[in-house]
Amino acid sequence: MALLTDELRARIGETRAYTAPEPLSAASMRYYALAVGDANPLYIDRGAARAAGWRDVIAPPTLLCDSNQYLADAERDEDGFAGHSWDIAPPDCRLVRGGNTYVFHKPAHPDDVVTVVWRLVDLAERVNGAGHAMLIVTSEATVADADGDPILTNTETVIHIALGKAS
Amino acid sequence: MTHPTIPPVGSELPVLRRTITLTDMIAYAGSTWDWHRLHYDPDYLARRGLPAPVVDGQFFGALLVAQAQDFFGGQAFVRSLHFRFANLVFAGDTVECTMRVTAVETRGSLVVATLAASVGVGGDHARVAVAPAGLQVELR
């Protein structure tokens, strides 16, 4: 059974845009820095951030790569997940993460109201070394500020692996 | 502005070692608005044959940026980071992030350091968690 159907192939290039309902906030930035154990003063001390040339504290760079805060409608699915999803779920597969590439254009600040545009870059089918078919989903999220200036780009790969072996 | 000392190509940065507890994972899930049950729900994990809550892979991105930013200082700007996942990491595992300078070049007023990185898990079930990985850091 092909994992990459014509119906799915037709979706390559699809985009979804989300605009955060409020500014990022210094509290969100401090919460993330605390959670990952990063005590860098650039994220919590305005004086330190200004001394480094920024107008205010900056967000830990990876915060906006992984946060779902920008979603106004954070509705949880049955897995408890409330982030962006393409709702691509081939039957009888398990999902693993492949990897990410982040490119940072400029830091985010507490007053930034971000817009995130997701693009379905590619869908590809392969067979792994163990003989299982895989559907490789490549997506790109571009995070921009209210003026449309890009903050970062996150390209990520997730892989749906068939539970049975390819025939 | 003076550049921090740039170590020569081949130099290893100080290793970042971190035990990631379930409490850390709950804090991370909250701070990223990611409530996926993979990261904390014992019933959900048992049904999938997983031995313990799974650490969110993007947590390692945060650790790698922290490792580089702490080393190069406040004037450094992490321009890019890439990583591939090799094996799952579970609550209670201790990870070691290693980072090595692979290139240093001057671009106008910037010095750009390229680093190769990896994340491993030690102990009885030692394994690679993240590799290959790499960063580019700009020093203003």
UniProtKB/TrEMBL annotation, chain A:
CDD domains: R_hydratase_like (cd03441). Residues 20-153 form the FAS1-like dehydratase domain. Pfam families: FAS1_DH_region. Signal peptide: none annotated. It comes from the Bacteria. This is MaoC family dehydratase N-terminal domain-containing protein.
